[in-house]
Amino acid sequence: MMRTVEVSNATLLPQIRELLQQGHTARFHVRGWSMRIFVEHDRDEVLLAAIRPEEVRVRDVILAEISPGRFVLHRVLRIDATGLTLQGDGNVGTTEHCRPQDVVGIARGFYRKGRNTPDLTNGWKWRTYSHIWLALTPIRRYLLAAYRRLWLKVLPPI
Q1: Over the chain, what is the mean pLDDT?
Q2: How many alpha carbons fall within 13 Å on the CB side of residue 17?
Q3: Separation between Cα atoms, residue 114 and residue 42, nearest integer Å
Q4: Model confidence over 95-128: pLDDT tens digits?
Q5: What is the model's pLDDT at position 77?
Q6: Cα–Cα distance between 107 and 154 in angstroms, integer?
Q7: What is the pTM of this model?
Q8: Secondary structure of the chain as H, E, C letters
Q9: Radius of gyration over alpha carbons of the chain, in Å?
Q10: C-alpha angle with apex 49: 45 to 54, nearest 5 degrees?
Q11: 155 or 144, which is more confident?
């Protein structure tokens, strides 16, 4: 029998940073809706690994500390001289910024919908979904509204 313990992000994520710095990977349930529609709050899990700041690329999904004690798991939209611009797949118009040294880890996979095998972020499925979703950015607001108002009413995420 497995026991579930809920820990706040403020407590958990600094510990995960330490584990990643020691060369471990980390797997935990995602909290929040900013990566919806691909990653659901409290349903899906992320597999994180360490990454050096200079290895981060546009379209990567990273865990970053955007201000002291405030972490986000978002996609990298831009990298320039001022740092990284991040946005959750479920966010419209809202971006966050961080410095390269604020990157805690990179998502290597997502355990979605209770599956035992991850959708790897370097796999064809995740890359295809990501490519299509990013191409739909101009109409993302309407797609997310339809997803929340229609899709989730018919097929709840859990």
Answers
A1: 91
A2: 18
A3: 11
A4: 999 999 999 999 999 999 899 999 999 999 999 9
A5: 94
A6: 30
A7: 0.89
A8: CCCCCCCCHHHHHHHHHHHHHCCCCEEEECCCCCCCCCCCCCCCEEEEECCCHHHCCCCCEEEEEEECCEEEEEEEEEEECCEEEEECCCCCCCCEEECHHHEEEEEEEEECCCCCCCEECCCHHHHHHHHHHHHCHHHHHHHHHHHHHHHHHHCCCC
A9: 15
A10: 130
A11: 144
Residue with tokens 């993302």: 140
Q: What is the pLDDT of residue 158?
A: 61
Q: How far is Cα 39 from Cα 155, in angstroms, rounded to an integer?
A: 15
Q: What does the pLDDT look like over 47-64, one tens digit per residue?
A: 999 999 999 999 999 999
Q: How many CB atoms lie within 10 A of CB 129?
A: 15
Exposure string for 22-59, b = 16+ CB within 10 A, e = fewer: eeeebeeebebbbbbbbbbbeebbbbbebbeeeebeee
Tokens 């899709």 belong to residue: 151
Cα(91)–Cα(140) distance, rounded to whole angstroms? 9
Taking residue 151's Cβ as centre, other Cβ atoms within 10 Å add up to: 13
Q: Which of 51, 27, 68 is nearest to 103 (CA)?
A: 51
